[in-house]
Amino acid sequence: MKASHLALLTLVLGLAVGFAIGAVLNGSESKAAGAPTVGITQAASVTPDVADAAGDDRLSQVGERPVSDGPAQIAARSTSGSTAGPGARTAARKAISTTASKSAEDTSAWTHTIHGVVLNADGDPLPGVQIVSFNRETKGWRGLMQARDTSEVGRAWEGLPDVEAKLAEQAETLMADRLHASTAISDATGAFTLEKLREGVHAVQAHAEGYVFSPQMTHTGRECVFSGERVVELELDVRLPDGTQPESAVVFPGASNFGSEIAWTSESPRLRLKEASFELIVRSGNVQRLDWRSMTSDFESEPRMVNVDTEGAGPLVVELRANQILRVKVEDASELVPRIPIWVKAMPAPGGSGEIDWSEESRTALTAVPSGDFEVSGMPGGKYLLAVGRGEGNAPEITRPVTVGPGLTEVSLQIGEADLGDFLVVRCEREDGTPVDKVSFDASVQTERFARPVQIKPERRARGEYWLPRGQLFQSEQDASVELAASTETDGSASTTVETGDGDVVIEFKPACSLEIQVQGDLTAGYSVHAAPKAEGSQGQRLSYRTMSRGSQKVKEDGRAVLNALQPGTYEVAVYETGHDSKMGGYLGNSRKVVSETIEVKGLNQPLNLAIPTAHTVMVRAEGVDAGKKLQLSPKDGGYRDRLTADVGPDSMARFENVFAGEYVLRLDGGSDSKSITVPTGEVQFVTKIVYALKVRSLEEGGPAALAGFQKDDLVTEIRGKAVSGWQDLFALTKSAAVESVPVTVLRGGQSTGLSIGPVGEEDGKPKSLGMNLTPESK
User: Which runs of E-coded beta strand occur in 171-231?
Assistant: First the structure.
């Protein structure tokens, strides 16, 4: 019953507001049709000719004239030609009348202005352009919080009178937002001034026949610049495969023009566009948007580039071809409420009888369209195998062969009762048995080398109850157990281990704890604190990544940081150097760990003091290392994000700043030599072997290198006249020699000689072997 009430309320509101908007636009358009100029005659009293989304859309229409009618004209039209109900018409008339009566309100405080200039695409001034501000402030820019009245939350429907009262209130607010407009006309220099504005941010639009301007949001007291583009006209002659014209089509002229579709009809074949050069696609017949990036239709054209400047304004013949569409209608005969979402996939009909892995990315997933069917467009003709199932990752419940031919191929299937064994039922609850809702899940499977993350799409069945497809959790026979973690914003994160044959799983949340952290020391660099569960093995590391977005907070200027929603347990609490540019402490990125401490978290507001260690400067003398080379300084117990780098200067010195006390490893970037140091320390002497050549360790008989004259133990010292300095030179040589001849210098028996190698060609997009084994040689 509540749903029907809401639908009725929405319908009545839409009819009434649509009536008011329609009355405004109808009158406006009739006036604009006969207007030879772009001038707006009214200034301070120009009223809301356009309402909400419909009005904002008109502002961006191509090369459109502005229009204006006052409240009296709008009210006069409000009684004619309406299809809305009596209550809706009364509410709309009341709103318009109330708004009109307020048109004489005191605007003496509206003393602010917006200055600007209008130019063409070449930067020359455009005079005579009409500038309009609807004097509408954007609420998100007002700077003050707009508190919301909650008195109507969860109230029962009180009938049509209540609807009409709300309608009148909303319509009045909508009209009042566009009560006063300020207009101006650009002078000979293109300059204009909008006057009598409220302080704040306003929507400003420029209008001139034959020009397109982008609307701007401008704050009073500031300047806005409009750049006008000439309107481009193009006539299309759209043809179906049989040579006839469709009654209508949808034109996609590329994102540079609209970023969305344009209607074409055989009666109005001429389009007005913003850009002269674009990629053109035309669709016709049952045009539907499958998702944000794909569409389907019965007919479509091949994409083609169009340039009106060079090809002319048409008519341009566009030939449509019939699309090959596979449409699957699936009837769900199960009694599950709510139902589990269904998936439909297709693959080329297999030749053998082996088991098929439907989770592979090569399978074509059909998209659910608004009608409830599943579709895929543009499939090559041929034989396919269809599969239908519930729960992404689970095995299909039914399969059916299908042959896709020209045009539309329709298949109807019925899916029966769900196999509940395909799902792992997870209940999240607190110690007292109350359910924990709004849970997100994370999982990882432990392999021999690392923990592999698992993507999960759970189905919420009831408060605190989730069904997880077993096909997602256990993707192979080797996946005997999965580490499953559940996280909420209020209760923190709890985890459990799930075995292959487990039935229902209960994840219990203990009372959440919190840490009150005081960071002491010099905080000028900007820091964040992060708490990660301390667990053994790779699963614990995986939980650390999952918790990173929830268990981090930025350290305030007074050194305080509070971490809430932590489940009791052992945590590593660390301070990271994130800088002041970080807008939140949740993402640590490549931040450097400064200090950490392992603690047992077991209560609310548990205090913890952490001190930023004293930073030191480490000077390194790297004799024999070329200037500009980089040295790395990494903590022995740290990760890649904790390492520091410094350039070697002309004096062979490298300077590391802000190095905290501890054990470090010093190495040359890209080199193999290293040295352990303890900070603080004095000047460090670092001696490293320098790569000066690539040594030929072995040759393939009859291979490219042997044919080019290379011999075993040759030393390649230069490539293209540049001295060899490391592994990167070997990679560069292999890549270049695949497509061209590369000159090299070889040291053989103390004598230098010149050789060249290549092109050796590519295989599967990768360079072929040079026919020799090269390794860096150091000294």
Answer: 182-185, 191-197, 201-207, 211-212, 216-219, 223-230
- Which residue from 405, 533, 424, 540 is spatially nearest to 472, judged by alpha carbons? 424
In one-letter notation, the amino acid at residue 205 is Q
Which pLDDT value is given to residue 294? 72
Reading the block at residue 403, the tokens are 């042959």
Is the residue at 518 inside a domain? yes
- What's the order of all strands across the beta sheet hosting 191-197? 191-197, 112-120, 223-230, 211-212
CB contact at 8 A, 497 and 507: no
- Quick check: pTM over 0.85? no
Name the residue range of residue 369's domain.
Answer: 325-352+359-415
Task: Give per-residue pLDDT as tens, 225-277.
Answer: 999 888 889 999 999 999 999 999 999 887 544 456 888 999 999 988 888 88
Mark whether 535 and 681 lie in a shared domain. no
Q: How many residues are there in the chain?
A: 779
Instruction: Give the residue ranges of the chain where pLDDT is below 70.
Output: 1-109, 135-147, 173-180, 255-260, 291-293, 351-362, 447-450, 535-551, 579-590, 638-641, 670-672, 690, 779
Task: Report how far Cα 166 is from the mean position of its chain's Cα atoms.
Answer: 37
- Map residue 222 onto helix, strand or coil: coil
Amino acid at 627: A
* Helix, strand, or coil (residue 433): coil
Cβ atoms < 10 Å from Cβ of 155 = 8
Cα separations (Å) of 451 from 445, 471, 536, 540? 5, 18, 12, 9
Query: Nearest Cα to 336, choosing from 463, 467, 470, 440?
Result: 467
Write the CATH number for 449: 2.60.40.1120
| Whole-number Å distance between alpha carbons of 22 and 65 | 18
Q: How many CA atoms lie within 13 A of 527 on its CB side?
A: 29
Both structure tokens of 588 = 């640590």
Sign of CA dihedral 500, 503, 509, 510: negative
Total domain count, the chain: 7
Give me the amino acid identity at 515.
Answer: L
Asked if the structure places residue 196 within a domain, the reply is: no
Among residues 588, 610, 611, 613, the alpha carbon closest in space to that of 599 is found at: 610
DSSP 8-class letter at 125:
B
Domain boundary among 488, 509, 530: 509
The answer to whether 48 and 177 have CB atoms below 8 angstroms apart is yes
